[in-house]
Write a structure and sequence with these properties.
Layout: E1 3-5, E2 10-12, H1 13-16, E3 23-31, E4 39-46, E5 58-59, E6 71-73, E7 87-91, E8 102-109, H2 112-115, E9 122-131, E10 137-142, E11 152-161, E12 164-174, H3 177-185
Parallel strand pairs: 1-10
Antiparallel strand pairs: 2-12, 3-7, 3-9, 4-5, 4-8, 6-7, 8-11, 9-10, 11-12
Length: 186
């Protein structure tokens, strides 16, 4: 049975799931509207400086794999139609380059500000972590409705602390666009 986290909740993947080798980070949402929305999952792999050490550690629809091969985006879903994960990221935490201390998971609405689209047009948004080998869902964080006027949401963070990986359900909404995150972390 999966652990359900609340905003700010933490889970030590290394201690509580020692058999976890490869993780699937699934991101899902349902549309409340017939209006087409294109949501994009993006990953920022940060060093201890809080910045991406080289541009290739910014994983998104135009750069699907980290240079160390440890994190791979499975591709852009432009409709969000379907019941399962809308976008997925595969992570082999044991292979993450030693310089990387934090992995941030962002979901943004493509051109959300220009199109006047926001997370209020979505329902049942979540992030979950699944053990790829056993297909077992380890944890889930369901986002609330507090992001109704936001165009991006940081869903969660994986942090390396004392050689252990911890997941934190952050749930921080913004209106800075994906470019705002790129400016912040590169």
């Amino acid at each position: 049975m999966a652990i359900n986290l609340q905003k700010g909740g933490k889970f030590n993947l290394t201690k509580q799931e020692p058999g976890l080798k490869k993780a699937l980070i699934g991101l899902g949402w349902e549309l409340k509207t017939t209006q087409a929305l294109d949501l994009d999952a993006s990953i920022f792999m940060l060093s201890s400086s809080g910045k991406v050490p080289v541009d290739e550690f910014f994983i998104f629809y135009n750069n699907l794999k980290s240079p160390d091969g440890s994190v791979q985006h499975t591709g852009d879903n432009r409709s969000g139609i379907g019941d399962d994960d809308d976008e997925m990221v595969l992570a082999n935490l044991a292979s993450v380059d030693a310089v990387i201390q934090e992995i941030i998971i962002i979901v943004s609405i493509h051109d959300g500000i220009a199109k006047r689209q926001h997370f209020g047009l979505l329902a049942d948004a979540y992030i979950r972590i699944v053990d790829v080998d056993t297909k077992r869902e380890i944890l889930r964080y369901n986002l609330g409705s507090e992001f109704s006027d936001m165009t991006e949401v940081e869903f969660g963070r994986l942090r390396r602390e004392n050689n252990e990986w911890q997941f934190q359900a952050t749930g921080n909404g913004t209106k800075i666009g994906l470019e705002g995150y790129v400016n912040k972390y590169t």
